[in-house]
Amino acid sequence: MTELVRFGISTEKNLLAKFDSLMKVRGYTNRSKAFSDLVRGELVKKEWTESKDIAGAITMIYDHHKRELVNKLMDIQHDFSKVIMSTQHIHLDHDNCLEIVAIKGSAEKAHKLEGALRAVKGVKHATLSMSSTGKGI
Ligand code: NI
């Protein structure tokens, strides 16, 4: 287990009040966890700008009736099979599908994959959730 250390921070009273308020809205019950998560959030952002291994997910919505679209999405996913860990497909309703593509690998490939999927005609929405392998944070 990682050793814990205590330290003091000097900051503006106003800023601390805003931090406490934000903490409550986000469900935190103590400043230590909220602060640690803020720092980890910054470290994850940094991982995505460097050539480190990242993990995350691409979520997209599309209409499966467009047959060419489904084939195209499949071709792209095969081209990126080294970064795709798993794909989950959920039939939202008669027309719309939700697909979650779990990824692990280089940030550059993750962005390329997201861009390729998003650009396919008929994909209504795609978003990239940028997370971490957890090793560096
Ligand atoms: Ni479906």
Short structural summary:
This protein is α+β, with helices and mostly antiparallel strands and 137 residues long.
Topology of this structure?
Elements lengths: L12 H13 L5 H19 L3 E11 L3 H13 L4 E8 L4 E11 H13 L3 E10 L5
Antiparallel strand pairs: 1-3, 1-4, 2-3
This protein binds nickel (II) ion.
Name a few traits of the molecule.
alpha+beta; 4 helices; Arc Repressor Mutant; 137 residues; binds nickel (II) ion; 42% helix; elongated; single chain; Alpha-Beta Plaits
Low-confidence stretches: none
Count of structural domains = 2
Q: What small ligands are held by the chains?
A: nickel (II) ion
**With helices defined by DSSP (H or I, 4 residues minimum), what is the helix count?**
4
Instruction: Report the CATH superfamily of the largest domain.
Output: ACT-like. Chain A, domain 2
Give me the Rg, rounded: 19 Å
Helix content: 40-55%
**Largest sheet report:** 4 strands, antiparallel
The CATH topology assignment of the largest domain is: Alpha-Beta Plaits
The total beta strand count reads: 4
| Straight-line distance between termini | 14 Å
CATH class of the largest domain: Alpha Beta
Structural class: alpha+beta
Morphology call:
elongated
Under the CATH scheme, which architecture of the largest domain would be assigned? Answer: 2-Layer Sandwich
Spell the H/E element sequence.
Answer: HHEHEEHE
Cross-sheet strand order for the largest sheet: 2-3-1-4
Structural write-up:
This protein is α+β, with helices and mostly antiparallel strands and 137 residues long. It folds into two domains: 13-49, Arc Repressor Mutant; 53-132, ACT-like. Chain A, domain 2 (Alpha-Beta Plaits, 2-Layer Sandwich). It is 42% helix and 29% strand. The protein has helices spanning 13-25, 31-49, 67-79, 107-119; strands spanning 53-63, 84-91, 96-106, 123-132. It has a four-stranded antiparallel β-sheet with strand order 2-3-1-4. The longest helix has 19 residues, at 31-49. It binds nickel (II) ion. Nickel (II) ion is lined by residues 64, 89, 91, 97.
